[in-house]
Write a structure and sequence with these properties.
The complex is a heterodimer of chains A (about 220) and B (about 100). Chain A has about 220 residues and is mainly alpha-helical. Chain A is built from six helices and no strands. Chain A has one domain: Four Helix Bundle (Hemerythrin (Met), subunit A) (Up-down Bundle). Chain B folds into two domains: about 60 residues; about 30 residues. The chains are: A mainly alpha (about 220), B mainly alpha (about 100).
Amino acid sequence: MSEQALPIEAFHHHDEEGTRLGFWLFLFTELLLFGAFFIIYSVYRSSYLGDFKLAAESLNTTIGTVNTIILLSSSLTMVLSLDAIKRGASGLSKTFLLFTIALGTAFLVIKGFEWAAKFDHHLFLQTSNGIAAGKGSPLLNPGAEMLPPGQVLFFGLYFIMTGIHALHIIIGAVWMLIVYAWTARGSINKDNYGVLERCGLYWHLVDVIWIFLFPLYYLVA
Amino acid sequence: MTTQEQSQSARTPIIVFSALIFLTITTVLLSGLDVGDTGAIIVAMSIATIKALLVLTFFMHLNHEPLIFKLFVALAFVTLLTLFLLTFSDYSFRGM
């Protein structure tokens, strides 16, 4: 039979390009997930323009800019990590991976402080009909003043969108730790770096999402 | 691989990164200008789109991918744009 004449490798063929294309398809679902939130943001922004601009002023542009630069830097170190493994420099690749994880963590820590400040100003989970949670909220302090509905929507969207984004940063960082371990034990190497490549694509997509989140929340006040 | 080639492979990412930082600072500085609300959104979103294209092209290596990858990415963004246009074709005319 003719198929017996084929070399055994033919049956273990791994289609790297097809895998990558499949991963891009997954990234498109991520794009639509965030895309839906961007549509909601746009609609409510057009309905409550004044409230959105007022609420956006309470976000610190400097912190947002620093976090943007941190995330862009982490994308650079991720590219350099992939570049290093392609050249067979797995030690260098691991170092750049650690830098990327460190920068991602720095982003989360800064985000955490930013969120904590908002919690303290009871801007978390407020709704226009008086249901609210968080320290000092009107629910716990009946005398406290409610935010106007437009600002409630702004902060609700702010926490959900940056929250889901932060979740992606956490997933990306955990994935990078796994990639680090696999590189250390040699299963990710010069000839087999698809996992690192896809991890990188994921990380860059999270960066692309932030590139749009940043101006919408920190700049157009 | 020679040192020359190694330094060249790192050159493109560093140039792209510098451009991204430059655009970030530019968009922050421009946000201080008073160009009206629509103007501010257009400026901020245009710069964000350029930054996203830089990341997609050079960091996500779309420039080295076959045409089918680029078509898929374009289709994904066109789909998202269609959703925006359909939503606003409704919302823009509510309550008129």
